[in-house]
Model the fold of this input.
Amino acid sequence: MAVAPETAADLVYQIFDLQRAVRCVAVASMRGQETGVALQGVLRFVGEGESRATHLAARLGVSAPVLSRHIADLEEHGLVVRRPDPEDGRAQLVALSEAGAAKLRAIEQQRTATLQGYLQDWSQVDAEETAIILKKLAGSLRDSARAKTAGSTEIIPHA
Done:
């Protein structure tokens, strides 16, 4: 059964409202950090495993030059390392350094604690059901033709 236009419009509003709220949580949880929200997002994707920079750019939905600047900033902070791709010398593989892995764990722990504090009045069941629904929504959006055109957020294993 198709979703009614009014429901789809409400979902669009709620998604944008959620994005704003998540940005506020991210900003609140990153006080005193040398990396901003964008760099933390890149760090998270790099943390999923060594990957070509071009694959990371596609997954993040950013241009190669934008990602290159982010990677350079993270490399300057000692959080990522780059090396030539042995299968294609023109390409680079990007991975977390030990410091980057520790930084990512600290960021995730801090964000988790911040969100736990904000959700003190939620039940465990509400949180679990919300996580399931958000995962389903993200999957539907990711699998849509428009999402594929903009760039997949799927994990692309290094070939």
